[in-house]
Write a structure and sequence with these properties.
The chain is about 50% helix and about 10% strand. The protein is an alpha/beta fold. Bound molecules: NADPH dihydro-nicotinamide-adenine-dinucleotide phosphate (NDP) and 1,3-dihydroxyacetonephosphate (13P). NADPH dihydro-nicotinamide-adenine-dinucleotide phosphate binds near residues 12 and 83. Catalyzes the reduction of the glycolytic intermediate dihydroxyacetone phosphate (DHAP) to sn-glycerol 3-phosphate (G3P), the key precursor for phospholipid synthesis.
């Protein structure tokens, strides 16, 4: 049986997910919520998202796209959340736990819910009483821009319910998308959050003028930071070299498409946080994550010098040049 799937969010990744689903099964069963009514009108008229991945043709029926969240949630069995983490609480503010009851909720978000300082699975479980067995996470090294171009990409679907993860993975498999399944929902989410911070660091270093030689050292240290942290938070046996962990860090730290690296690059070149954000049409999750991880790590006290340096630059207005020079003394 083909389930009804809703995507919540109107950005690049949501548009890419709509494309993957549409290339795989009946578009009649796909629903899409976004907040921007003008974008919805444009989509209904011209079949393209005007603001993100505008080359992608959208084939789902006009009536399946709406800015009425309750209606879209009500229609679907599987709900893919894909607004940036900073706006998730506000987006879901009019949805009650009752409206999520019995539904499978999938996070395609790579971020932390601010103030709550929770990963998305924890937030859904604690604030919306969604059982962990009904929560899935989509992760892995995959840029929306390459999905639009149908470049071969791999995604990891993580859940404590690996049977459900396998079923959902099949909904995403296409000619250009391959999927893996993992039971490490906490490690997968935290690694995806942290890699955004390290991509900001990578961009800052590039903006200052550090070369590829140093970038390689930075990223080698970053993967060890990720390992230390996820092992502290959720100590299970995992191979940090798998693509959901190392792969995601690499693509985000090196790709021309990376929003976090682009944002960091501007900071390294002397832009203020505000001006760098205004310059970008897109959201760099690493900016928000640096602050949330700073708070979360007060509990775990994991040694995370790169993450700490990014926090100091973005939130304590430390000089990127000085902070990165100090960091170089701690890397190996
Ligand atoms: N892009 C990618 O390749 C990937 C992204 N992700 C994750 O997907 C999530 C969404 O990112 P992505 O699709 O890239 O987003 P984009 O950066 O492409 O787009 C920004 C999105 O944020 C919304 N937004 C901006 N400001 C606000 C606000 N104040 N309140 C509510 N919504 C707002 C925008 O809505 P509007 O247009 O209405 O302003 C738009 O939908 C993130 O967690 C990201 O890490 C994960 C894997 C890959
Ligand atoms: O998570 C992503 C790719 O896996 C996208 O984030 P960036 O655009 O910052 O690389």
């Amino acid at each position: 049986m083909i389930p009804k799937v809703a995507v919540i969010g109107g950005g690049s990744w949501a548009t890419a997910i709509i494309k993957m689903l549409s290339d795989n099964f009946s578009t009649k069963e796909i629903y899409w919520w976004m907040r921007n009514a003008d974008a919805i009108n444009h989509l209904q008229k011209y079949k393209h998202n005007p603001n993100y991945l505008s080359s992608v043709e959208i084939r789902i029926p006009e009536d399946n796209i709406s800015d009425d969240l309750a209606t879209i949630v009500n229609l679907a069995d599987y709900i893919i959340l894909n607004v940036p983490a900073a706006f998730l609480k506000e987006t879901l503010s009019k949805i009650s736990p009752e409206q999520f009851k019995g539904k499978k909720i999938i996070s395609a978000i790579k971020g932390i819910v601010p103030e709550e300082n929770q990963i998305i699975a924890e937030f859904l479980n604690q604030k919306y009483q969604v059982p962990l067995e009904h929560i899935l996470v989509i992760s892995g090294p995959c840029h929306a821009e390459e999905v639009a171009l149908e470049k071969l990409s791999y995604l990891t679907i993580a859940s404590v319910n690996v049977g459900l993860a396998g079923f959902f993975a099949n909904l995403l498999n296409t000619r250009y998308i391959k999927t893996n399944v993992s039971d490490d929902i906490f490690g997968t989410e935290y690694a995806a959050v942290l890699k955004n911070i390290y991509a900001v660091a990578s961009g800052i270093c590039h903006g200052i003028g550090y070369g590829d030689n140093f970038q390689a050292v930075l990223i080698s240290n970053a993967i060890r930071e990720i390992k230390r942290f996820v092992d502290a938070v959720h100590p299970i046996s995992r191979d940090i070299k798998e693509s959901a962990y190392l792969g995601d860090l690499l693509v985000t730290a090196y790709s021309q498409f990376s929003r976090n690296r682009t944002f960091g690059n501007m900071i390294g070149k002397g832009y203020t946080v505000k001006s760098a954000q205004l310059e970008m049409n897109m959201i760099a999750e690493g900016y928000y994550a640096a602050s949330c991880m700073h708070v979360i790590n007060k509990k775990y006290k994991v040694d995370m010098p790169i993450s700490r340096a990014v926090y100091a630059i973005l939130y304590e207005k430390h000089s990127p040049q000085i902070e990165m020079r100090l960091l170089t003394e701690q890397l190996n």
